[in-house]
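Hi W.,

Here's what went into the run:
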Amino acid sequence: MTGERPPVPPVPPARHVPPVPLESRLGYLLKHAQQRLARASAAALAPLGIDGHELAVLAVLAAEYPLSQVEVAGRLGVDRTTMVALVDGLEDQGLVERRRSPADRRKNIVELTPEGRDCLDRAERARLAMERRFLDPLDEETAAALVRALRILVVEERRIAE
Amino acid sequence: MTGERPPVPPVPPARHVPPVPLESRLGYLLKHAQQRLARASAAALAPLGIDGHELAVLAVLAAEYPLSQVEVAGRLGVDRTTMVALVDGLEDQGLVERRRSPADRRKNIVELTPEGRDCLDRAERARLAMERRFLDPLDEETAAALVRALRILVVEERRIAE
DNA sequence: TATTGTTATACTCTATAACTATA
DNA sequence: TATAGTTATAGAGTATAACAATA
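Here's what came out:
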């Protein structure tokens, strides 16, 4: 708090390379890796007219049948209110259709159209190619360890947290 | 599009465990790992009255001196307009002080107060303990590979992207 | 003219509340 | 009374534009 300071040492030119204290932080690394992948994913799916959330909906619908909107929302871990807009967008593009469940007329069964199935196939190929490019700078063993680690942290640990 | 459908197979009870198609997706895994860590980080830092962004500012300030607001913003990869509110909050808590640069009177030199330095020390210990707990379910080798992979993807690859 | 700090604005994402129709 | 779909609203976070002071 005294006025004595070293006489203004030169500051290195401002670059976007983070200084030492940041690049070893797990929070910094995870956040920026996620953002980088999100951008790559958006770019890879843009030609197909969908985004990552919409692709996830299509994939869930293809894996299980029949599913209502809340059930899809539960699989994806999103709120049922956000699912409405998601299904709206997919329906506008003709990729899914809403259908009242005969067994429970409160439920909207969401089902893939043939166009939706075709879009899903092409989107999955685009996603796989994107993930391969994204992991390309890693050697095979490190890439496998990354996926294994994330799966343990996200999938296995959830059981404990519940 | 015909009405012929299998007679409504039973739907498994809705749980939050993602179905097969999601847990192998890099995007899903990275996003949820990041969210999980962000929650753990917030909980670990809450007793100190700061959040992860504020801790990052303190750490950058401790590593380089002197730094103006834009320079800190550049190190963190955030906009200079968001840096204003960040420094406001830290200054209100007495952790940093603004000081006009004599060399360039447009610049605000941001410097740690003794309280800020103390807060940084305790926050860094809390963060390290939190990261250890977060990585605890991984064996040592996998945890090291995770950090190494993220560092390559985030730090090394940026040079190429620029 | 360009840069720094600042404010105001807009836009995205998400969470909450409330309404309806069904059960 | 509870659930499914829907809408509206509010909040956090972030990006953009503009302005004053300074270079």
